[in-house]
Design goal:
about 270 residues; alpha+beta; two-stranded antiparallel ribbon; 7 strands; globular
Length: about 270
């Protein structure tokens, strides 16, 4: 009997070691790779390399709301199913990358065209279809973000502060795509009590979020419309739900606890 118990204990110990090994932290992406999306719904089937989409560059120039509401990109990588023919007709990437639109007095390069043009101008296609290729880029992350306020995680940039200081001015309106509407009243900052004892309270700022998201990115699909009705946990957030839809992918990651849990615990 004692021998049997000893064997069972050994099994449990090795099981614990095995489980612990699976909990090793993943390698953090480099700042310029944070938020990078690889789009390959149709690329390789069409004989092209997958598209590499740099969120850091686009978020510096456009709001999240403009792309994910007005233009209609899905919030999950690969969920939109973008086709070259869609871009050619002026949808999705082709909304801006049409060869006609300008941004900061600079013409935005055209995206997809017909097949014969692709064969003649493959280098232009590789501006986006760049996975595994040594492509010369117009914007270098380190040069572009030099002088931006720094943070510890994610891109290593405090985008909120960069916007407040006028270092980035994200566009939130495209003529013919967006609808002009009167601004809504922005609720005041609210306090959210954490479930974990001893954790500082969360101070949620609608003002900071509406600059990038408006109201439509979050409501009603991700969060409800009535305060307190949507219940969620950190486990669900780590499962890419609620706050985790953005934080951990493009917005600062969840390991930066103090960016949300900002209100100090009151001592007794």
């Amino acid at each position: 009997m004692k021998k049997l118990l000893f064997i069972v204990c050994l099994i449990l110990v090795f099981a614990d070691i095995s489980l612990a090994q699976t909990g090793i932290k993943k390698k953090r992406p480099l700042p310029y790779d944070y938020g990078k999306v690889i789009i390959n719904n149709y690329s390789e089937k069409g004989g092209l390399a997958p598209v590499v989409f740099d969120h850091w560059l686009h978020r510096a120039k456009f709001t999240c709301r403009l792309c994910h509401v007005d233009i209609g990109f899905g919030m999950k990588a690969g969920s939109t199913g973008i086709k070259a023919s869609d871009n050619t007709k002026g949808y999705y990437c082709g909304t801006c990358h049409n060869g006609k639109m300008s941004h900061n007095n600079r013409k935005v390069f055209g995206a997809c065209s017909n097949k014969s043009a692709q064969q003649k101008d493959i280098k232009r296609c590789e501006r986006c279809h760049s996975m595994g290729k040594d492509v010369e880029r117009n914007y270098d992350f380190n040069t572009f973000t030099e002088g931006f306020p720094k943070e510890r995680f994610g891109n290593g940039i405090n985008w909120e502060k960069a916007e407040a200081e006028g270092l980035v001015e994200p566009v939130d309106f495209i003529e013919g795509i967006s609808i002009k509407r009167p601004p809504l009243t922005i609720p005041k900052d609210s306090s959210i009590e954490p479930k974990g004892k001893g954790m500082p309270e969360i101070i949620f700022s609608h003002k900071k979020h509406t600059i990038w998201n408006g109201c439509e990115v979050c409501h009603p699909e991700i969060f409800g419309v009535k305060k307190g009705t949507t219940k969620y946990t950190m486990i669900e957030i780590y499962e890419d739900k609620y706050c985790g839809v953005c934080h951990g992918k493009v917005a600062f990651p969840l390991i930066d606890c103090q960016r949300c849990h900002t209100k100090p615990v009151q001592s007794l």
